Amino acid sequence: MAKEKLSRSRELASKVIFAALQILSEMGGQAPGREVISQVEKRVILDDWAKATYEKLGYIRWQSMLHFFSIDCIKAGYLVKKKGTWYLTPEGESALMLSLLTKCRRLISAICSIDITPGFSD
């Protein structure tokens, strides 16, 4: 079964959310929201479309995506926001590690032209 390509918006959202969770992990699991946003902007390569401002609202697209999709992370129990500070939960840390492992498996598979699946043994 072929994977469906993410929409441009969802692809951007996944990049900025992943970066935000990584940043929180690197900062000991918590940081002021403004600092997280600032670090995401420095870390993620943003094209002109992502940096564009919504005409009617005046919000920057990538920042809107980060705020909007962070709600899903809160609902999933990965993130807590309280009084301007963002907290990465233990569940969020686990999800981040699982995501990193998945990316590593895909990279190794692509480089070596082999399928690496969990539980694989000789």
What report would you give on this structure?
The structure is a single chain. The chain is mainly alpha-helical. It has a domain at 8-89: Arc Repressor Mutant, subunit A (Orthogonal Bundle), CATH 1.10.10.10. Helices cover 60% and strands 9% of the residues. It has a 3-stranded antiparallel beta sheet with strand order 1-3-2. A hairpin with a 2-residue loop joins strand 2 and strand 3.
Summarize the structure.
With 122 residues, the protein is mostly helical. It contains 5 helices and 3 strands; from the N terminus they run H-E-H-H-H-E-E-H.
Task: For the structure shown, list the relevant keywords.
122 residues, mainly alpha, Arc Repressor Mutant, subunit A, three-stranded antiparallel β-sheet, 5 helices, globular
Distance linking N and C termini: 26 Å
Largest sheet: 3 strands, antiparallel
Q: Give the low-confidence spans.
A: none
Q: Gyration radius, to the nearest Å?
A: 16 Å
Shape: globular
From the helix content, strand content and strand pairing, which structural class follows?
A: mainly alpha
The percentage of residues in β strands lies in 5-15%
What do the pLDDT scores average to?
A: 86
CATH classification, class level of the domain at 8-89: Mainly Alpha
Secondary-structure arrangement, i.e. CATH architecture of the domain at 8-89: Orthogonal Bundle
Number of helices: 5
Report strand order across the widest sheet: 1-3-2
Would you list the SSEs in sequence order as H and E?
A: HEHHHEEH
- What is the number of E strands? 3
Helix content: 55-70%
